[in-house]
Amino acid sequence: MEVRSHFLLSITFLLVLQYTSLYMAKLTQGTVGAAQINITTDQSALLALKSHITSDPHNILVNWSTTTSICNWVGITCGARHLRVASLNLSYMGFTGTIPPHLGNLSFLVALSFNNNSFHGTLPYELSYLRRLKLVSFGYNNFVGSIPSWFGAFPKLQGFYLYGNQFSGSIPTTIFNLSTLRVIVLSGNQLSEIPQEIGFLHQLEKLYIEFNALKGHVPMVVFNMSSLTTLTLYGNSLSGGLPDNICQHHPSLEKVNLGDNQFGGPLPSKLWQCTKLLNLSLVENNFSGSIPKTIGNLTMLKGIYLNSNNFNEIPKEIGFLHQLEELYVPLNALKGPVPVAVFNMSSLTTLALYTNKLSGSLPDNICQHLPNLQMFQWKHSKKYWELNPVNHDWA
Ligand SMILES: *[C@@H]1O[C@H](CO)[C@@H](O)[C@H](O)[C@H]1NC(C)=O
Ligand SMILES: *[C@@H]1O[C@H](CO)[C@@H](O)[C@H](O)[C@H]1NC(C)=O
Ligand SMILES: *[C@@H]1O[C@H](CO)[C@@H](O)[C@H](O)[C@H]1NC(C)=O
Ligand SMILES: *[C@@H]1O[C@H](CO)[C@@H](O)[C@H](O)[C@H]1NC(C)=O
Ligand SMILES: *[C@@H]1O[C@H](CO)[C@@H](O)[C@H](O)[C@H]1NC(C)=O
Ligand SMILES: *[C@@H]1O[C@H](CO)[C@@H](O)[C@H](O)[C@H]1NC(C)=O
Ligand SMILES: *[C@@H]1O[C@H](CO)[C@@H](O)[C@H](O)[C@H]1NC(C)=O
Ligand SMILES: *[C@@H]1O[C@H](CO)[C@@H](O)[C@H](O)[C@H]1NC(C)=O
Ligand SMILES: *[C@@H]1O[C@H](CO)[C@@H](O)[C@H](O)[C@H]1NC(C)=O
Ligand SMILES: *[C@@H]1O[C@H](CO)[C@@H](O)[C@H](O)[C@H]1NC(C)=O
Ligand SMILES: *[C@@H]1O[C@H](CO)[C@@H](O)[C@H](O)[C@H]1NC(C)=O
């Protein structure tokens, strides 16, 4: 009895094993329903794409010849293990055309890059079948309309690049379910809204949405995404103030560019909490008041760009920024003398202070402690002195 049940158990085990390996074999062939999907399918998908490319000024597609394996075609990389198309990179090839639904059959595709071509039309729904995709890059093409919500179907997506098209409307909330997303680049479109749900992206490091049609306030959750290192929203019509605790949940922030919007009010006094900040650009806004003294604690800063605001004071604490290379505060309401500490920042290469209400005279030995200064813009935009970097004489 015991022997028999052992025997049955092992048979069952073997059957399970066999079934599993069969299943695995089918899986690596990419079986969908009844049709077998293999490299031949990949070839037909690519040939369909070729037939949808209407202009190929550099004659690149001559290379896509059926006499050789598709794995040798320009722009194609096959996976070493399964010999299916893993990467399709047609960036910078000068193509004009549309994307056929057949690309949805490239079931082993991990990276899809079509940057800098003239693809147009709609992105077919069938692309959503590409469950292995980690990179989607359609930058600088001519796609229009809404960003399809099926972009939320890529559970492994890490990089999402749709810059330089004419996408409009909101960013579909479906993509905010993709917890693996690290980089979103939607710059240069006509998007009008950042949904609250963006706060679900707990691994997002870089968010670029400059030059779009975003309006109103930035959703507070954006200032709460602790994984962010880069936040670039310039060239929109955003407005409002920055919350005083903007940095409390942003321990990793390195680069912030909120230029050319309609933000106003004082700078957050707790700016010092963004301890990793390297580059701060808030040009062409309506910020006012003093630049907070605590900026002197952000000792990693290399660039500060505050052109065209209403700041009235540079604190002397700015002198603590021993890595600062570029300090731009022109076209503001700065009053009084420039703190002497500013003329003591040996890392500075550029100092722009023109069109303010500054008074007092410049120290005689201005260059003594500014050995790296290459450009000094003092009074008006056209009236600046360029320093000769060799002997520090006025050029
Ligand atoms: C791919 O599958 C088809 C059936 O769908 C089969 O005829 C063909 O021989 C297969 N090709 C390869 C390279 O396995
Ligand atoms: C296509 O280009 C690749 C790489 O540049 C080359 O290895 C291959 O031989 C070319 N194939 C044809 C048919 O020209
Ligand atoms: C795609 O090709 C371009 C041009 O050859 C290259 O610069 C880029 O790094 C490639 N992208 C990927 C994801 O391989
Ligand atoms: C691939 O995709 C196209 C269009 O989505 C479809 O018509 C075709 O049957 C698919 N399968 C194969 C094996 O080519
Ligand atoms: C990509 O396209 C943009 C916009 O047309 C252009 O400014 C840029 O120079 C192009 N880059 C390359 C490498 O072709
Ligand atoms: C996100 O995923 C959750 C759980 O999987 C689902 O309930 C929800 O509808 C999804 N949201 C969107 C916007 O796709
Ligand atoms: C920001 O995060 C904190 C802590 O995780 C949470 O208490 C707060 O409600 C969040 N605020 C917003 C606007 O999401
Ligand atoms: C700029 O801010 C000041 C207060 O600092 C306010 O009086 C003025 O209306 C604002 N200007 C614009 C264009 O928002
Ligand atoms: C900021 O810098 C000042 C002067 O160096 C220092 O006294 C203060 O403790 C610093 N604050 C923080 C929070 O690091
Ligand atoms: C800061 O970022 C701006 C915009 O990307 C760039 O032009 C500038 O060179 C950066 N500054 C430094 C010091 O890296
Ligand atoms: C200038 O810097 C030097 C060394 O960093 C320091 O000893 C000196 O006190 C500073 N002078 C002023 C006016 O900040």
In words, what does this structure look like?
By secondary structure, the chain is an alpha/beta fold. It has a domain at 258-395: Leucine-rich repeat, LRR (right-handed beta-alpha superhelix) (Alpha-Beta Horseshoe). It is built from two helices and 28 strands. It has helices at 2-29, 39-52, and strands spanning 53-55, 76-78, 85-89, 96-97, 111-113, 118-121, 135-137, 142-146, 159-161, 166-170, 183-185, 190-193, 206-208, 215-216, 230-232, 237-240, 255-257, 262-265, 279-281, 286-290, 303-305, 310-313, 326-328, 335-336, 350-352, 357-358, 375-380, 383-386. It has a 15-stranded mixed sheet, with no helix packed on it. The chain has a six-stranded mixed sheet with strand order 1-4-6-8-10-12. A hairpin with a 6-residue loop joins β2 (76-78) and β3 (85-89). It starts with a helix and ends in a 9-residue tail after the last strand. Mean pLDDT is 88; it is low at 1-34 and 381-395. The structure holds 2-acetamido-2-deoxy-beta-D-glucopyranose (11 copies). One 2-acetamido-2-deoxy-beta-D-glucopyranose binds at residues 35, 37, 41, 44, 101-102, 104-105, 126.
